[in-house]
Amino acid sequence: MPSIVERYAQKFRTSGEMYKRGAEVVAGGGHQSRTVLPHPVYVDEARGALKWDVEGNELVDHMIGYGALLLGHGHPAVTDAVTARIAKGTHMGTISSLEIRWAELVTNLIPSADLVRFTGSGTESTLLAMRLARGFTGKTKVVKFREHFHGWHDYASPQSGINTQVGIPGETMSTVIVVEPDLAEVEKLFDRDDDIAAIILEPTGGHWGQFPLPNPGFLHELRALATRSGVVMIMDEVICGFRMSKGGAQQRFDVKPDLTTMAKIVAGGLPGGAVGGKAEIMGLLGSSDPSMRLAHPGTFNANPVSATAGIAMLETIQSEPVIEKADAAATRLKAGLRDALTKMEVTGHVHGIASIVHVALGVECTCPGDICTQPHSALAEATSAPRSEMLKLAMLNEGVDMMGGIGFLTSAAHRDKDIDRTIEAFEKSVSALREERFI
Ligand code: PMP
């Protein structure tokens, strides 16, 4: 019986060859290629909840554009609008009316966004939000939580669980304080340091909920602490915005941050992002006082193609039961994964909110399966490499692409039969992992 890695190398042989070719010209082999060892899968085509690799292997997609494609791949509302837009011009070198419509949708949907500004990505959104907070407060430091991911720029990099610190000046690092998601620790920090501009967090907990926060109480108390200390609260809704609810995590948990960072769904699956927030902070952009004016140029910010995709996506979310469908797929998936673990007598826990599903093998929990109450150390152990890497490969062998071997995202395009394939693949993959003693 070939091992997981051997089966992978055999099934994705063309991708392996491509990876060798890619390594000749693309630094590091390719975009994020090191996240799938021994080589990534090359995919050039996708539709609905499915995608096909370069040699025709069909995969149920739970990456779904790293969360950007809440409608699934190639939804006609988005593709028709974008196709028509491209024919009319992709960049006019002026402002376009589409920016206004896009902004109206975002400010209507996101409760705390009085005003919005569009960026090129989630990374740019968190960078802009931090600069806005620093400009507004006149203070220097930003507080972030360990294992919370906010993109790849310098200020987002410390202890994000993904970035390294190579190439980042020590001076920059010293302006970012990393703490545990512990309210007492945050309170002490706010009390002893009066140079803190902002606190940024993923409202679901680190890595889209791999390490949950004790929501919603935690968020409410953090909100109160930030207000009391004059610290700008930045909610990073890059993944959960328009997914946790139409108004994101802030609507679901009824907490109003000062600034919200968005990307992925907001741009309809095309490159783009946004920062929304209180008018008094957002007003720094374009302030009539030159000493307060915060500059934010950028060739492709609010470009008409991304705006068109964003508008189509947000209008569809607003008018159709998109979130309900994606959530129903996740509910079916969670139940199926749990049943599989029980049937196979494998210790493991499945948790997640809305259309987010996380799996932790080797750990048990009595929580209702939404906001997991296990200590983060136990969840870290359960989802660490090589187990998570092998789960990712084993699932690919069975025709499913999951997020980083730690969980799944669902979309409105995931049909019952797609979810059932994922559950079946999970059973086979767990069995392969057990055979090779990864669990
Ligand atoms: N914040 C969060 C919470 C994210 O999940 C991500 C990307 N996964 C980012 C920021 C960065 O966004 P982007 O990849 O668009 O730069």
Structure summarized in a few sentences:
This protein has 439 residues and is an alpha/beta fold. The protein has helices at residues 4-11, 13-25, 76-88, 97-109, 122-137, 170-173, 183-192, 206-209, 217-229, 248-252, 279-282, 304-319, 322-344, 376-382, 387-397, 416-435, and strands at 43-47, 50-53, 58-61, 115-119, 141-145, 176-179, 196-201, 211-212, 232-236, 259-263, 273-277, 348-351, 356-361, 400-401, 407-409.
Write the layout of secondary structure elements.
Blueprint: H1 4-11, H2 13-25, E1 43-47, E2 50-53, E3 58-61, H3 76-88, H4 97-109, E4 115-119, H5 122-137, E5 141-145, H6 170-173, E6 176-179, H7 183-192, E7 196-201, H8 206-209, E8 211-212, H9 217-229, E9 232-236, H10 248-252, E10 259-263, E11 273-277, H11 279-282, H12 304-319, H13 322-344, E12 348-351, E13 356-361, H14 376-382, H15 387-397, E14 400-401, E15 407-409, H16 416-435
Parallel strand pairs: 3-14, 5-6, 5-7, 7-9, 9-10
Antiparallel strand pairs: 1-2, 2-3, 4-11, 10-11, 12-13, 13-15
Helix pairs in contact: 1-15, 3-12, 4-12, 7-9, 13-16, 15-16
The site of 4'-deoxy-4'-aminopyridoxal-5'-phosphate has 14 residues, from helix 5.
